[in-house]
Amino acid sequence: MIIESLIGLLLSVSPMAQHSQKERCAHHQAAGEMMCVNRLGHCMEVTVDGQKTVPLTDEATAQRVHAIKHDQDVCWQLTQPVSTKLRISAKAGGIFPSFLGKIEKIGAHVYQLADFDPKVDSRLDQMDVSLEPDGDPNGTWHLTSEHPLPAGEYVIAFQVFGVGNWDKQAVLLKLDPALQPAPADPAGK
Description:
Elements (H helix, E strand, L loop, with lengths): L1 H11 L8 H4 L19 E5 L2 E2 L1 E2 L3 H8 L7 E4 L4 E2 L3 E6 L10 E10 L16 E5 L7 E5 L6 E11 L3 E11 L13
Parallel strand pairs: 4-11, 5-11
Antiparallel strand pairs: 1-2, 1-6, 3-4, 6-9, 7-10, 8-9, 10-11
């Protein structure tokens, strides 16, 4: 009985849960562009429906989000809900802005957190969505999906590919179908 309890306890501690949020989301300790190689979003700026992403620093929220198996280091968040038909813009920025260069493509992996049931699922599957540019790749991109996304809490991992390299921000956010997406900015002004 005691051995079974200890085995269960050891199995329940995920590798991500063993690190603090500050440790999990720290940029790579190196000089120059090598600070960006862990691709945790430190070398770009992301705006979703007019809101800039901010670091997720609350340890309790981070532990709750990382307890759900989605294979993402969630280091960013939005403080207010956004539209289920959101628009995103991204640009080089952060600790080494020249790492990305001019934006060429943006992708996304979307995970609805309410879909995870640890009794049934070994990990949370990503939803099938894409991001399409509203014009120039350095302008806004709009989310498209086969089925409308329901309201709720999500992790969306935005992969931003530039002419120089790529970076990723996994963002905790809430989607609200009553909200309208940000206006399109096809020229990236």
